[in-house]
Amino acid sequence: MEIEEGDSVFNRTTGETWFVLGVNRERDQMCMAGWPPAIFPLSDCKLAEKGTGITSTERSYRDRQFGSWWDTKDPIPVAQ
Q1: Tens digits of pLDDT across the chain (80 residues)
Q2: Is the peptide bond before 36 cis (omega within 30 degrees of 0)?
Q3: Does the residue 22 lie in any domain?
Q4: Number of domains in the chain
């Protein structure tokens, strides 16, 4: 099972469990909620609990903190 936004992961390096705000497989990165919000290698993490995605508020926070280049299941429509 792949790690996706909204899942909880266990980070092997820190021994902590985190809530995933975004995943970028091409860059092997994930961003996590918490303090401080951070980016870590996706390969350092394993799935702890499958989630149900992230809310629009969480996505807005993620994009403000980390940018908008994360893989998404439901891409946000771009105004034309």
Answers
A1: 899 999 999 999 999 999 999 999 989 999 998 888 899 999 999 999 999 999 999 999 999 999 888 876 554 444 44
A2: yes
A3: yes
A4: 1
